[in-house]
Amino acid sequence: MGRMNIEEFKEADKLPLVVVLDNVRSQHNVGAVFRTADAMRIERVVLCGICCCPPNQELHKTALGAEESVNWSYYQDTIEAVKALQKEGYTVYAVEQAHDSMTLEEAAKEVQSTKVAVVLGHEVFGVQQEVVDLCTQCIEIPQYGTKHSMNVSVTAGIVMYRLSEAMRKL
């Protein structure tokens, strides 16, 4: 199928998109984010707080080796990670339901020519308020059912796909 090996992936150009996981507790969710990050060829994943880090057997079950291809880093404190990304020139968005949040479609129009980081939060508590306060704005995926939240790895996949598609259209 003409897929890259890990060495080719490491050398390939990446989209200037970073996913920050703020205290995501499920090793399977973290692994799924790695796998989607590989598929979208994003720059890196930043793990913060209670997130597990590679090597980890449970993470590997869903990442299927993507934890070896995708660049990643770890910060004990998500606030430090966000500030570091901002210093590197990234516009940082929290993926969170909030007053005056923008839709994912609106965000896709804004990110086309910028370095972007998106912060996704804990499965129950979401992105820490202190982290939200540091971000440029919140991105929200419109939802039309009875539930008002989605699994964090599903949300990450939707966000990575839509933003990466917008970035590729440059």
Sheet with the most strands?
A: 7 strands, parallel
Structural class label: alpha/beta
User: How are strands sequenced across the largest beta sheet?
Assistant: 3-2-1-6-4-7-5
Classify the beta-strand content into a percent band: 15-25%
Between the first and last Cα atoms, what is the distance in angstroms?
26 Å
Helical content class: 40-55%
- CATH fold call: Alpha/beta knot
What this model shows, in words?
By secondary structure, this protein is α/β, with parallel strands linked by helices. It has one domain: Alpha/beta knot (3-Layer(aba) Sandwich). It contains 8 helices and 7 strands; from the N terminus they run αβαβααβαββαβαβα. A 7-stranded parallel β-sheet has the order 3-2-1-6-4-7-5, sandwiched between helices. Strand 1, helix 2 and strand 2 form a beta-alpha-beta unit. The chain is globular. The two termini are about 25 Å apart. The mean pLDDT is about 95.
